[in-house]
Amino acid sequence: MRVEEYIPLRITELCEKRGYTKYRLSQLTDMSQTALANIINQKSIPTVVTLERICEAFGITLAQFFVEDGGRLNLTEEQNEILEIWDGLETKEREIFLSFIRSLKK
């Protein structure tokens, strides 16, 4: 698959996974809905800087954007489940989750 086809599909997939509307993604990236629509409709290809902003909104790295399943190889079923739950959390929920996990280490 060519990159100009992959990027819109991946953005759409991540929006569905996170429950983000295109409007919500535009808010998180500080991009216009038109600019995002142009990327999703394959009318434009984002720059690396723009793609990094999109990745930041999803809480992933640029490398994870281009790897299926976020590059989660050799993980147990439980580890994958934890990461799937993590992916669906909002920023505040992630902070709470991390606090809880860190408290278990003591």
TrEMBL record:
Transmembrane segments: none annotated. GO terms for molecular function: DNA binding. PROSITE patterns: HTH_CROC1. It holds the Pfam family HTH_3. InterPro entries: Cro/C1-type_HTH, Lambda_DNA-bd_dom_sf. Residues 11-65 form the HTH cro/C1-type domain. This is Helix-turn-helix transcriptional regulator. It comes from Anaerosacchariphilus hominis.
